[in-house]
Amino acid sequence: IAAMNTLIFPENLPSPLKEKAYLLQKILHNFAPPFVIACSGGLDSRFLAFFAKKTGCRFSLLHAAGKHVGAKETEYLKEWSKRENIPLTIIPVDILKIEHVRNNHPARCYHCKLHTFGILKQQSGPSAVCDGTHAEDKNTYRPGLAALQELSIQSPLALANFSKQDIRELAKAIGLENHMQKARPCFLTRFPYHVPIQETMLNRLIELEDFFEKELTKICGDPSPDFRVRHIQDTFCFHYDQAMRDNDLIALQTALNKAKIPDIKFERLSKLSGYFDK
Fold this sequence. Notes:
It is a single chain. By secondary structure, the chain is an alpha/beta fold. The chain has 10 helices and 7 strands. It has helices at residues 15-29, 43-54, 71-83, 99-102, 108-124, 144-150, 156-159, 164-173, 199-220, 246-258, and strands spanning 35-38, 59-65, 88-92, 129-130, 227-232, 235-240, 264-268. Helix 2 (43-54) packs across helix 8 (164-173) and helix 5 runs parallel beside helix 6 (144-150). It is globular, with a radius of gyration of 19 Å. The model has no long low-confidence stretch (mean pLDDT 92).
């Protein structure tokens, strides 16, 4: 068993965050090695993995790949884990075969996580399985949290009371690359509840998301402003927030016309996430 290291945090790190960091370290050290981190490729689970590596934990990553997760995020995770020398196993999951998921039931996230993490638990055997859920996730509509509880999935970031801002701040302090990585929620969240998810529409939405990401990076640089593509009443919508400038929107419209992509509705929102949970 590898010895656990103690991270030395920067002197200018705020005391409350430093206390949370030491608590997170203690929580991870209490898992019998080797444990498993379910990693989506997003910031939260990557931070957890990077922090665990920095403290000398013995662990590996499991990633459930499927239509609900962007292929670009899966590829990024593969490249990142290789650079960091963290063992990664990718498990294909066909989540649309689950009836409540395919029909977009309001508890879709519960059924999705019950199925997906059930597979990850089988893969991990007796090892503890952790995920990247943080403290603020408990304040939003997250039916999937009940599935994690039923399956005894551990959420160290939530246990240590980490907020999203805490994660970004500590990720920067300890040298995690891409610490300002934007949230890219499951693509199934871009469709209204009770509207069955058709694979052709899902593929088209993913294509549009990639298009907007590419064009916004050209226009604004990296990191580009955040956005969501959603499918509402047979129309694809481009949702953006106050950070998007008028000139950027004009440039996007020009790019759409040049690419001959028709009928995209533009809408500014005060809050990007949880649109269908209102």
